[in-house]
Amino acid sequence: MATRIRPSSKRCAVIGGSGFLGRHLVEKLLGKGYTVSVFDIRQSYELPGVTFHQGDLCDKQALLTALQGVSLVFHCASPAPASDDKALFQRVNIQGTQTVLQECHKIYYNKDRLNSIKEMLLVLTSSASVVFEGTDIKDGREDLPYAKKPIDYYTETKIEQEKLVLKACDKENGLLTVAIRPHGIFGPRDPQLVPILVDTARRGKMKFIIGDGSNLVDFTFVDNVVHGHILAAESLRPESPICGKAYHITNDEPVRFWDFMSDILVGLGYAAPRYHLPYTLVYGLSLLLWLLSLLLRPLVAFKPTFTPMRVALAGTHHFYSCSRAKQDMGYKPVVGLKDGIRRTVESYPHLRHGA
Ligand SMILES: NC(=O)C1=CN([C@@H]2O[C@H](COP(=O)(O)OP(=O)(O)OC[C@H]3O[C@@H](n4cnc5c(N)ncnc54)[C@H](OP(=O)(O)O)[C@@H]3O)[C@@H](O)[C@H]2O)C=CC1
Ligand SMILES: CC(C)CCC[C@@H](C)[C@H]1CC[C@H]2C3=C(CC[C@]12C)[C@@]1(C)CCC(=O)C[C@@H]1CC3
User: Fold this and answer.
1) How many domains does the chain have?
2) Which end of the chain is more exposed for a tag (fewer CB within 10 A), N or C?
3) For residue 58, with 0-12 CB atoms within 10 Å meaning exposed, 13-18 middle and 19 or more buried, which class applies?
4) Which stretches within 191-278 are classed as H helix?
5) Active site residue 154
6) Closest residue to atom 11 of ligand 1, CA basis
7) Which residues are CB-contacts of 159 (< 8 A; sequence separation ≥ 6)?
8) What CA–CA distances, in Å, run from 129 to 52, 162, 184, 213, 271?
């Protein structure tokens, strides 16, 4: 039987703590004096003050062991959006999140209440994309309706996940929840944005700007996302206005999508895209390619670079207001966009042109 550990307000669990955001979050928590239990399907590093529990989110017993003695849980595990695997997204983001909620209840209602936990706190990493349907969003607030026609399975299951977590907030029964909605996270060790961009450039496909290039977008440096998560955790009390609510966390500096991409590319020694292509043409082609990849899946596996989601993100406005986070939890970005881009570019010497 697992040994019981007494909870402390400086002990917490990070589900998905081996991933990009998760690891940055763990490092910041350690710096703030927390000890951390990481639960992830893989272990990607070792650090003093961190206990690793390797397992699948849907495995109740493994999860329960990782959550022992913890009254604060950050849930930032998800399959990568690029996997486009419907069954995997449903299993991890929906079933897995249900398991997290059940296990949080279980810890709280531990028969002998040895844990004497006042409340169980759950901070979910959701996504601002839960309201994105492929059309312009300018200064979007949290009261925008969820996307009725989500563009991909990732978004579809992130919506269900956020609904589940916010609905489970129950002050009487000691479970307090909040959802953080970051947008376009970037920074050192990001496995998506910079590597995909560089790979596309190396294959000679980053010559074109989709649309007129004037669309404004939020890109959020990872430290700001971490800051938002910790502020939310430390503000989560039964009397706090944040219980059961969602919060946009961004750099609060919308930038032209193609200027941001060019800054990263040029910083790494690649040419910036120059030629324009009409948005509707590229979006139509991306839909055709996606359908083709579905039809051919049993015969050949090919993954188009320009998916409908990526094209929509590259050719529309999507930036969000974080005034609710400013008001309810005193959020303010801690790293500016320019500084964030510089730190990101410097962290990828192996992806520089010619390296
Ligand atoms: N990156 C971005 O721009 C944005 C991300 N988000 C959200 O932030 C969160 C973190 O994203 P990010 O750090 O970029 O992603 P990562 O893929 O880097 O991190 C997610 C981690 O969860 C792990 N994981 C996946 N499936 C399971 C499972 N079944 N059980 C346990 N662990 C699992 C992953 O392992 P493995 O790598 O082996 O799959 C990985 O270590 C996600 O919830 C994502 O939806 C929201 C907005 C924007
Ligand atoms: C090939 C090019 C048109 C684009 C290359 C860069 C893209 C890989 C990234 C630009 C915006 C990013 C983004 C996400 C993933 C990587 C990008 C598409 C997310 C979909 C990650 C998960 C989320 O919750 C929302 C993000 C929006 C922005």
Assistant:
1) 1
2) N
3) middle
4) 193-202, 222-235, 257-267
5) yes
6) 21
7) 130, 146, 147, 150
8) 30, 11, 9, 20, 29
pLDDT tens sequence across 284-328: 999 999 999 888 887 887 788 899 999 999 999 999 999 999 999
- The first and second tokens of residue 345, run together, are 């570019």
Residue 80 in domain:
yes
Whether residue 126 is contained in a domain is answered as yes
Considering only CA atoms, give the Rg of the chain: 21
- Answer yes or no: is the C-beta of 162 below 6 A from any ligand 1 atom: no
Output the residue whose Cα is nearest ligand 1's atom 37: 19
One-letter amino acid at 157 equals: T
Provide ipTM, 2 decimals: 0.97
Nearest-CA residue for atom 8 of ligand 2: 193
313 Cα: distance to centroid of ligand 2 (angstroms): 7
The reply to whether 272 falls in a domain is: no
Distance 296 CA to ligand 1 centre (A): 28
CATH of the domain at 129: 3.40.50.720
For residue 261, is it within any domain?
Answer: no
- Given the residues 154, 247, 331, 348, the one annotated as active site: 154
Note the pLDDT tens digit of each residue in 109-137.
764 455 567 889 999 999 999 999 999 99
